[in-house]
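Sample intake sheet
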Amino acid sequence: MAAIRHQWDADFVLDSSETTAVLGLQATPWAEVVQATAQATTIGRGMSSAGTGRLKK
């Protein structure tokens, strides 16, 4: 636990602005990520391996 203790010292800041500016990629909105994760957990399906964050059909 000592190796990851720093993760509890401060809030995590999620900022995709540089990625958006340089690569033109857009981050998935947090509410959508949470909803997809909850649905995947609830119905027992995993996330897409394509990295889209969308549920497999």
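Comment: Residues 1 and 15 are 26 Å apart (CA to CA). Residues 30-43 form the longest helix (14 residues).
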